[in-house]
From TrEMBL:
GO biological process, one term: methylation
Entry protein name: Methyltransferase type 11
Keywords per UniProt: Methyltransferase, Transferase
Record InterPro entries: Methyltransf_11 (IPR013216), Methyltransf_Superfamily (IPR050508), SAM-dependent_MTases_sf (IPR029063)
Sequence ranges assigned to domain Methyltransferase type in this UniProt record: 66-160
Membrane-crossing segments per the record: none
GO MF, one annotated term: S-adenosylmethionine-dependent methyltransferase activity
CDD domains cross-referenced by the UniProt entry: AdoMet_MTases
Length: 279
């Protein structure tokens, strides 16, 4: 059956977003940069706050754990350091470079490693007690990915899913004002003859985040019953002010619990985490 113009446009947009997401972490140098961002840089507070939120969600569980979209293995290494023996860990990522980084980070630990997409995972049904999808659905076909999570988790198991919060003040300013401004500035610099290496840049990320109510409906549609909702990296500061503030104020490192919220301040969270169990 012939595709309509709209269908072709949608497929093209999905394909481009897919390519942009894949290109980000195919390069080993970019993988190293991602790992280093956990320790220092503009995104460090976000990553550490998210890790704290995942830690909290995993506190009451153990067993076979799948880390989907595992990146360079920061959660894998964290669990090996803090919960050794509690989990039998399997990790997968669409990027072979990321999986190589996980292997280096895990060392001699017995961690199962796979190059695989969240939308089509090579695991039997009901394989895991816990599935963690940390920062991956924004770069994937989310509904298909959620259905795969539901397929591989065991009855009575737990799914832990994080998502950028597209309706937070931070993301609205970043995506709707700050990044467009930088792109415009880069064009002006190009016309002015500024060398490419000195121009402002914004990566083509392929991000497509959804608000918490949308993700909740998505999880229910896949057969999950959503449980807890926690917002992390709670901050009133928006780009580019946040960069200056975060370089000068590092007190959050000693009070990481203050960067997450279920209360009135949750709308300031730049990301959120939702847990769910098979219905």
């Amino acid at each position: 059956m012939a595709l309509t113009g709209l269908q072709r446009a949608v497929r093209h947009a999905i394909s481009r977003r897919d390519e942009q997401a894949a290109a980000q972490y195919a390069d080993p140098d970019l993988v190293r940069g991602y790992a280093e961002a956990y320790e220092s840089g503009r995104a460090t507070r976000y990553f550490q706050s998210r890790l704290h939120a995942v830690d909290e969600a995993l506190r009451p569980v153990s067993g076979a754990l799948l880390d989907v979209g595992c990146g360079p293995g920061m959660l894998v290494r964290h669990l090996l350091d803090t919960r050794l023996g509690d989990f039998r860990i399997t990790a997968c990522d669409r990027s072979a470079a990321m999986i190589e980084a996980v292997a280096d980070r895990a060392g001699t630990s017995d961690v199962g490693l796979f190059v695989a997409r969240i939308e089509d995972m090579p695991f039997p049904d009901a394989s895991f007690d816990v599935v963690v999808a940390m920062g991956v659905l924004e770069y994937a076909r989310a509904r298909q990915g959620v259905r795969e999570l539901a397929r591989v988790v065991r009855p009575g198991g737990l799914a832990v899913v994080s998502m950028l919060n597209p309706v937070s003040p931070y993301r609205l300013v970043e995506w709707c004002l700050y990044w467009p401004f930088l792109r415009l500035l880069a064009q002006v610099e190009r016309l002015a003859g500024v060398p490419p290496g000195r121009r402002h840049t914004v990566p083509k990320s392929g991000i497509r985040a959804v608000p918490a109510p949308w993700l909740r409906r998505m999880l229910r549609g896949a057969g999950f019953e959503p449980a807890d909702l926690l917002y992390y990296d709670v901050t009133p500061f928006v780009p580019p002010l946040d960069k200056v503030i975060r370089e000068r104020r590092q007190g959050w490192r000693d009070h990481i619990d203050r960067t997450v919220s279920r209360g009135r301040g949750r709308w300031l969270g730049t990301g959120y985490l939702m847990t769910a169990r098979p219905g």
